[in-house]
Amino acid sequence: MRYDTELAPAIVLPRSRPDGRNDPLALFNEQSLDAYRSGMQRCVELVRHTLTRARNPCSGIEPQELQPAFQAIDLDRPLDDLEASLEELQRLYLDHAVYFHHPRYVAHLNCPITLPSILAEAIATPLNTAVETWDQSAGATLIEQKLIDWTAARVGLGEDADGVFTSGGTQSNLMALSIARDSACEAMPGHAGNRHHGLPSNFRQLRILTSEVSHFSVQKAAALLGLGYDAVIAVPSDASKRMDIAALQAALKECDEAGLIPFAIVATAGTTDFGSIDPIPTMAELCRQRGIWLHVDAAYGGGLLLSRRHRHWLAGIEQADSVSIDYHKTFFQPVSCSACLVRDRRQLRHITYHADYLNPRDQAEGGTPDLVNKSLQTTRRFDALKLWMSLRTLGAERLGDHLDQVIELAQQAYRAMRQRDDIEVLLPPALSTLVFRYRPDDVDDDGDLDTLNQQIRQTLSRRGEAVVAGTRVDGRFHLKFTLLNPMTRLAELVALVAEIARIGESLAPSLTSPSARPSPVWSQSSC
Ligand SMILES: *Cc1c(COP(=O)(O)O)cnc(C)c1O
Known about the structure:
This protein is of the alpha/beta class. Helix content is 39%, strand content 12%.
């Protein structure tokens, strides 16, 4: 076995006893504890070995290259052997996994994760706690609740705030907008509420306003909520990609004139592409004047709650009616770990359903804390333990410092990239993203630049050298760095940008458009 030689020889893997009554590999219980320990040790060694060998953030494999290995696998014929399963897994998964902690993984909002949070998984998974009701979780419920209260206090939502852990920003946004919709509809004269009766007859007039660069999950939520994508008004953003308040006011005025009902405004605190933070205080004031629900999507920028240097960038968030926070982004926690918070816990009634077998009404009235009462999910992982272990072991300031470091890194990288005349950076960074493209003097056709930058991205990923994101701004393809690794050094990013330019230089001559003059032969790179 390829990974075998470097593994600690002392680990004796448990063997399956398919005919025996106590097969240690079959079900976890107090009789499989030795097998649990040695199996975990083996897996730890496997991860250790794989990560020590990994030079690159990815292998560069294409789907059609990996697919055949899966066709050969018959799920109805088990290997009956842990060693053999692990060896197979190495080929199918570990050899090609994408490493978010690698300095040249700069694509999406995936972060390196704290060690205590990983250890939390080693506890929560075997115990398999489900945090839906007190009778399934006890202490776990209180751990989650304390983290919710702590986060709400950091936001400044006040005494009546509450919330719940979710699978991610997408679910948090759906939950918040669902509550906002139901709360608005409940107040409509002649309508007895959505929960029993469904949407009111004028539901086609309902509108959500959000900036044009907000997250697509707002559109998705609108569709899932029965309102449709078209119920979302994309408000233009200003030059720094923050919601344009004049445009918001104009949009609200148009709603009035057309008899539409704007029931929620979504402020993004950290847009996914630009990290830009909408002017929350002004938006909050508008919402207050008009009785509109303010949801702040802080899936990306939420980590600023822990920042010693930049907490003030979130000013106004304390006025939100609901907030989405992704701990699995800027709190450096493993996927999934997120929360949806509301200013007024009574609003959570819109998603409560009392089932006799699980969370009967009298149980809630008796004060039993059943988290299912405020969640879209029923069976739910104890994701809170990861954040808990990070906070208890490392503390909030260490997490906040990590975010401050990547913000600083983004600013340094911006200055360095601006010194190159073949790299066009769109904006100074707001949080930790940089949107840019390779743009040499002699290529100015937009279509050519799109092709060139797409090819650069593919080349980097195919070689496994770097995972860089791509996005479109005003229709034009751009590259994007999302920096979330506080251990990454500026020199590593500068080298990556130089490599991007080198690849671009070698690809430019192959462009077909007449506007792209062929480069002289001697400037072509050999790779
Ligand atoms: C990432 C992100 C989301 C979606 O969060 P998931 O955890 O991926 O579901 C929503 N909004 C913003 C602004 C984000 O950056």
